[in-house]
Design brief:
The chain is α/β, with parallel strands linked by helices. It contains 18 helices and 5 strands. It has 3 domains: 131 residues, Rossmann fold, CATH 3.40.50; 96 residues, Serine Threonine Protein Phosphatase 5, Tetratricopeptide repeat (Alpha Horseshoe), CATH 1.25.40.80; 156 residues, DNA Cyclobutane Dipyrimidine Photolyase, subunit A, domain 3 (Orthogonal Bundle). The chain is globular, with a radius of gyration of 23 Å. One of its GO terms (biological process) is nucleobase-containing compound metabolic process.
Amino acid sequence: MTKQKVSFFWFRRDLRLEDNTGLFHALQSDLPVIPLFIFDEDILDNLPKNDARVSFIYDSLQKINNELNTFESSILIKKGKTTAVWKSLLSEFDIQNVFFNKDYEPFAIKRDTAICSLLKENNVECFSFKDHVIFEEKEITKADGSPYTVYTPYKNKWLEKYHFLGTVPECDSSSMHSNFAKTKFSFPDLTEIGFKRSTIKVLPHNLTQIANYKETRDFPALDSTSYLSPHLRFGTVSIRKLVNWANRKNQTFLSELIWREFFIQILFSFPNCVNHNFKSAYDGIQWRNNEEDFKRWCSGNTGYPMVDAGMRQLNETGYMHNRVRMVVASFLCKHLLINWQWGEAYFAEKLLDFELASNVGNWQWAAGTGCDAAPYFRVFNPEIQQKKFDEKGEYIRKWIPEFDFGYAEPMVDHAFARDRTIATYKAGILK
């Protein structure tokens, strides 16, 4: 029996049907489109079986599948090693084209290169598209073509290019839904993928909460953030819609979205920064890396309320306010002299919005070892940060119920830690 010729659209970090660039182009092709998602064992095998992010991905895929059902279509869900899955698909279907959106992380680039080679060996055309960012790879560079390593000139060039475009056009594929293949694939249970539902939830995003973002964003008790970051991470919202909205409504919020693209550009241009200091001169720092100190930091038992509240919020919810992230990261690297990589790995495990580029970039910023980083002699005083941004202790009391009775003493004196850090950095910075 002759197989029907089809195109595939491969969902990854773009879990939505609307304004999805790669999907838009797939649906413009002449062949029926089969939507695909692969639960990649190379990623899943390193996660706890109740990982909240897997639950969120699963629920987002189920939402997509329900929408597809209204078009008499469905999504094909596979689990396994990515290369093995594609080899199986090539034998099962007469695939002519594969469409997907680009991912700029080193692991993803290596994976996609291998899959495209496999597809081409089997006479399958492979098409990739920019969707995760407004400007990618080498679109924002210095005059000599080299990447920016300082945020402000990058931002200025980014805005100049964006305003030259006027706006970023969005992809409307609503009239092409009939081009999905007529399929009735079985949608697996979460347990069939090897996971169970997490009690930690990804919250809905809400742009109305950031009306006064510039004035309120540094005060964690106000809870005035958008909760967009996990949705950006997994692409349940379109970056084009967000940027166009922010440009009209909130320039401070737009700057935060540009920071995200800056770090993605840094990671793409300097992939070694995943495991190494961007500034190699800092490679000589002699970190203490005390495991007991690290455990107290992880559990939120340092005796510094702003640090402990942030870590407990992270452990219980998968979220942490951005101002508090800076305080806890600085404390780990500067007060405890623990390598930023330890903190980066812990955040990668716990954060619902974990994105490699931003996580590495921000941790190196806090440690002073990254591009455009805080200077090494800038050591946040957690007590001053608390007085400035949680003066009444509302955020702290929410996460530290014992704050007003029997709360721990600080595990290290701030003045002592600051002097020790500056001396250690001075001695360790390579000339």
